[in-house]
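Board work, copied verbatim: tRNA pseudouridine synthase
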Amino acid sequence: MSRAKKLLRQPAAALLPKDNSCPAHQVKCIIAYDGTDYNGFQAQGKEGTITLQEAIEDAIFRTTGEAVRIRACSRTDRGVHARGQVIVFDTLCTADAEKLRDALNSRLDDAIACLQVVPLSISSDRMDPRKLSIGKEYEYRIVSGGVRPVHERFQVWFVRQLVDIKSMKQAAQLLFHREKRDYASFSGERDDAKEGTDTFCTLHALDITMDQPRQEVMNHGQQSCIRIRMSGDRFLYKMVRNIVGTLVDVGLGKIDALSIPDILLARDRRQAGQGAPAKGLTLVRVYFS
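↓ predict structure ↓
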């Protein structure tokens, strides 16, 4: 039994109208979280584990007294973080947006924050943010060379060797295309390589930038702090992490940047590089029309 289910009889407070005269409406929330200690986003109902969905639903119940099922835009994997996850739920709560946000934050775990609450119009149509989104933006952080970033070990991927940023950028240019392109070679789902499966995506941006290392790090050897930003209309399962891992393999000299077009044409995950670990990935923003 999940932690959320265990707590369903113990609301700390309720912001519901006493006479239940107000019609149900939908509320959209922008959520940020550190995904390190959670078993992914989607509720699983497994004994001894907790997911982000379960933790958020628990906080909503302890705020409004309602046992809701939230609808999320992205079902992030275990260890993945977010600054712009979008959730929607149905409620009778009439509290204003700021009051509801603050009430939720007082009950959410320290690793989760509600950044914004937006009341939606009263409607019989249930909004599904995953189906209505038209794009997402992700950021991946890498520390290459130098000393292990101890205090950020759950937010960045530490690559011991210095990577060649120039070759990584060359590979990124070959991967990026403003029109639809087949990214089956970067999907973590085996069935995506089968004929007839839609593996076409449109990338709106694929940028690699460098941050300035902290002085205490620079004193202990050369180091590169890298951010890879990626936005697109849709992403295949583990596509972002597989692209990042391939770019790192290019930077380490394991893959030739000029082989990227052949990797794309192969539609074979084995032709691309390694998959990057979840901990360096953050869902930054979700776009709606």
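Residues 1-9 have pLDDT under 50 and may be disordered.
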